Amino acid sequence: MKIIQAPIYNIYFGNNSYKVLNSFIRSNNFSKVVIIADNNTNEFCLPKLIHEFDFNTSYDVIQFASGETNKNLKTCYEIWKALTSFEVDRNSLIINLGGGVVTDIGGFVSSTYKRGIKFINIPTTLLSMVDASIGGKTGIDLDDVKNQIGTIKFPNMVLIDIRYLDTLPNRDFNSGVAEMLKHGLISSKSYWNELKSVDVKSRDKLINLIHKSIEIKNSIVINDPNEKNTRKSLNFGHTLGHAIESLSLKDNNLINLLHGEAIAIGIVLESYLSKDYNGLSQLALDDIKSTIKSKFGIIKFNDSQINSIIELLIHDKKNSHKDINFTLIKSVGNYSINKKVDEKSIRMAFRYYAE
Question: Domain check: are 245 and 261 in the same one?
């Protein structure tokens, strides 16, 4: 069984990870176990999980509607009420079974209910396996602003079982690939080249690629758990990507973008800014754009939408003293943080993306 040691918890891979889960539940003598899932994971993934259970502790299930639009305080309120009705106490355990929305909400609820109870993340999407469930970030959106409210609270363990990916639509799978590509761009040229050349969906390749992405993110988090310095590297593609994702959820003239799809656009835009402000070569920039375009295509933005995206940048949580801070790359595998750019350059980046 593969294991990655995170700051104060372990990430377990494969079928044998359930033996660790069952042992953890039995040894802690939890008063209750609660599974938080959305309607998709409740239907497609929960039966697989329950089949692996081997403990006597009673469990309940809390389900909410899937999708980023439900990642808000209203959903948290309903979950907090359900936890109270189930008489969940501080010696209980929450298992978050789902993608990034579930692990973000579930982690936030767990870190705030009765001032914090133990929780475990079992990610069921590629995106949550390589990104959302790792690193201790929890959070919800506030109106149109992503992850405006949240905590940093590490889970007690994370279980990676790629069998859950069998239920995943193609768009959702590719959404996770975007984060993997980002890991290569900020940390490893060899990993970037590998992702470009292999069939990511190949089962023989996939588990090792997931393991490599988690290793990259985990090593960054260990060095900077509270995002004071090097952890900001993980924000590459996200400053503009989050604004684009937020706009897509409310603009009826723009397709609703999944997180990774918006981040893929952000990667191209912020790579262009990297050329202007951080010395990225034109050759590397064109390679990045070509790679992203081949996997995600191109989304067209009109001037009004670009204006709205720039307006949303003001609310990005990475900003300081009203400055918009970007993580930009110098070359594939090397980055700089806290880079400030002007509005004109952002508009030029959209022009390059559309060409």
Answer: yes
User: Which pairs count as long-range contacts for 246-251, CB under 8 Å and 24+ apart, including other chains?
Assistant: 246/141, 246/144, 246/145, 246/146, 246/312, 247/144, 247/305, 247/308, 247/309, 247/312, 249/68, 249/69, 249/144, 250/144, 251/305, 251/308
Bridging pattern class, strands 137-142 and 145-152:
antiparallel
Name which of 79, 89, 80, 13 is nearest 57 in CA terms: 89
78: domain CATH number is 3.40.50.1970
Of 131, 288, 150, which is closest to residue 218 (Cα–Cα)? 131
pTM, entire model: 0.94
Q: What is the dihedral of CA 171, 172, 176, 181, to 10 degrees?
A: 0
pLDDT in tens, 241-294: 999 999 999 999 999 999 999 999 999 999 999 999 999 999 999 999 999 999
Instruction: Indicate the pLDDT class of residue 198, thresholds 50, 70 and 90.
Output: confident
Q: φ and ψ at 298, to 5 degrees?
A: -130, 135
Query: How far is residue 33's CA from residue 31's CA, in Å, rounded to a whole number?
Result: 7
Rounded Cα gap, residues 292 and 309, in angstroms: 20
**Three-class secondary structure of residue 4 per DSSP:** strand
Instruction: State which of 167, 189, 218 marks the end of a domain.
Output: 167
Number of residues written out for the chain: 355
Amino acid at 180: M
**Count of domains for the chain:** 2
Whole-number percent of the chain with pLDDT over 70: 97
Q: Which domain holds residue 286?
A: 173-354
